[in-house]
Amino acid sequence: MNKNFAAVFVALVVLISCNSRSSQKENITPDVYSNYLQKGNDISNLAQGVLLANVGKAIQQGGAEHAVEFCNLKASAIIDSLNRVNHCDIFRVSEKNRNPGNTLQNETDRSLWAHYSTQAADRVNDTLIQSSEGFVFYKPIRIALPACLKCHGTVGEEIDQLTNKKLHNLYPSDLATGYKLNDFRGMWKIEFEAN
Fold first, then answer.
1. What is the C-alpha to C-alpha distance for residues 173 and 176, in angstroms, rounded to an integer?
2. Whole-angstrom Cα distance, residue 156 to residue 28?
3. What is the DSSP string of 152-187?
4. Phi and psi (nearest 5°) for 140?
5. Total domain count for the chain?
6. What residues form DSSP beta bridges with 142?
7. Handedness of CA 144, 81, 91, 194 (dihedral sign)
8. Integer Cα distance of 138 and 130 in angstroms
9. What is the pLDDT of residues 9-19, one digit of tens each?
10. Which domain, by its residues, includes 46?
């Protein structure tokens, strides 16, 4: 009975959040909506590409263990530089975060997490929400490449012991392992101030 109640509760939250997202869209002119949706998509693709390229280089230079250290030291600086260039605030948020600063931050994050985590990859659309400060863009992040599993897969299978040790040293509260290819892992969240 409790599982049925939980399923109904999650369905209601998703339905309410979907309805609120569409009513949010109704308050945004089509040009503004398209513009911010495109900006969010472009910036999230750029951020993903830059991070993947740098992590790929780190793996080539010293394996997955070196890539974990690289992410710990450099990923935030890369995102900060993209924030300045694009005049926005870029976050990667997750219920199963590695970095303690990447937790779900509010009810909207939690609602979209629940929605995205129950949808097939080809059935999920990016989301734009108007907030009191401006606009917030969300896009799901999936485990897209086998190389991602070297740090986010299963310990003893894709994650070797040296990488696992480095993860535990740098991220003692790490929750971001145990994934398979194409699993939903997190969300890009990009905040834009209204112009």
1. 9
2. 49
3. HS-BTTTB-HHHHHHHHHH-TT----S--TT-EEEE
4. -70, 145
5. 1
6. 184
7. negative
8. 12
9. 333 333 333 43
10. 2-193
Token pair of 76 as six digits: 């935030």
At position 101, the amino acid (one-letter code) is G
The alpha carbon torsion through 83, 84, 87, 91 (nearest 10 deg) reads 10
pLDDT digits (tens, 9 = 90+) for 103-142: 999 999 999 999 999 988 778 889 999 988 899 999 999 9
Strands across the sheet containing 184-193: 89-93, 184-193, 134-142, 127-130
Residue 70, both tokens: 């690289």
Quick one: CA torsion of 153, 41, 83, 147, rounded to 10 degrees?
20
Q: What letter represents residue 88's amino acid?
A: C
Six-digit token string for 57 = 């280089």
Cβ proximity of 89 and 74 under 8 Å: no
* Confidence (pTM): 0.82
The residue type of 34 is S
Burial of 51 (0-12, 13-18, 19+ CB in 10 A): middle
The helix/strand/coil state of 149 is: helix
Indicate the average pLDDT of the chain: 86
pLDDT tens digit string along 148-174?
999 999 999 999 999 999 999 999 999
What's the pLDDT score for residue 121? 74
